[in-house]
Amino acid sequence: MNKRPFGLAVAQLGPIQPQDTRAQAVKRLLELMKEAASRGARLVVFPEMALTTFFPRYWMTEQEAIERYFEPTMPGPDTQILFETARQLNIGFYLGYAELTQEGRRFNTCIMVDQQGNIVGRYRKIHLPGHSDHKPAAPFQHLEKKFFEIGNEGFHVWETMQAKIGMCLCNDRRWTETWRVLALQGAEIVALGYNTPSFNIHWDEPGHLRMFHHLLSLQAAAYQNAVWVAAAAKAGNEDGNHLIGGSAIVAPSGEIVAQAQSVDDELIYCLADLALGDAFKQHIFNFAAHRRPEHYQLIVERVGPGAPLGKPPQS
Ligand code: ING
Q1: Is the pTM value of this prediction over 0.85?
Q2: Does ligand 1 have an atom closer than 6 angstroms to the CB of 254?
Q3: How do strand 248-250 and strand 228-233 relate by DSSP bridges?
Q4: Which residues neighbour 161 within 8 Å (Cβ) at sequence distance 6 or greater?
Q5: Nearest CA owner, ligand 1 atom 2
Q6: Hey, which residues does 11 pair with through a beta bridge?
Q7: CB burial class (10 A; 0-12, 13-18, 19+) of residue 30?
Q8: 3 state DSSP class of 296
Q9: Mapping DSSP to helix (H, G, I), strand (E, B) and coil, where does residue 99 land?
Q10: Among the options 110, 168, 170, 270, which is catalytic?
Q11: 3-58 pLDDT, tens per residue?
Q12: CATH number of 5-301: 3.40.1390.10, 3.60.110.10, 3.90.180.10, 3.40.605.10?
């Protein structure tokens, strides 16, 4: 099998505090981008909402959120340097941020920027977790349903940097449909950022399950869709609220080939062989040969569980 090497880097960010400026966050991103380039990376994946603290943990008005945490332009004055440096270093990047559109609409968004510093793709988060009401008794809020609209551009794959690259964001990784829709477009790499609180505000979830479910989601998806997965955390203690680390690069075999050890700024890297995915796509997960969509219609027709359809055998 001829190899198709692709230098793949994931840049985990430690905490961004509410009082930190975008310029301070960008300075850290630049350090990580330079380290990724020095390792030979063609692409570096940054976290979800990589420019600010994870503000959906706070109750505030939409207007307050817009003024403090959203980007009305991308690139903007603080982020232009990322694009210029990417071009100089010949490295592409995935960046997550809170998007304010010209029409005033709000999305939890990420972009794919190629090695020439051009935005080649954008994805707006579709699976928004949490709630939209104020829960004053909770130790923190999770107001993505309040501050963001459901993404309106679908799940896509772009041919860029000599690969087929798909994107998603955080909670999307827990939903198998995210990955299958990307894999049905021929994705070879799926990039994603995440901010995952270490504790659950809804029930007394055992702490170890956060990391377990995070990695389980990535590994199952990588294997069942024969894709390389590059997942970047924003991690650590933001204003007293802890976010898991566990940034990881997962091979199409489902094996974790690189994983962050800290909950701070940390680069992980792998010289991924895209041909490894081909082996799985040609055999066990040869979708065209083995999938039977004529039996899957409930997946599209039903939002939540409905009546069982089983009946006694007729003959
Ligand atoms: N964060 C979390 C995530 O999906 C969450 C929210 C955590 C939902 C754990 C369910 C269980 O990783 C974001 N930003 O989606």
Answers
A1: yes
A2: no
A3: antiparallel
A4: 6, 42, 43, 92, 114, 115
A5: 196
A6: 267
A7: middle
A8: coil
A9: strand
A10: 170
A11: 999 999 999 999 999 999 999 999 999 999 999 999 999 999 999 999 999 999 99
A12: 3.60.110.10
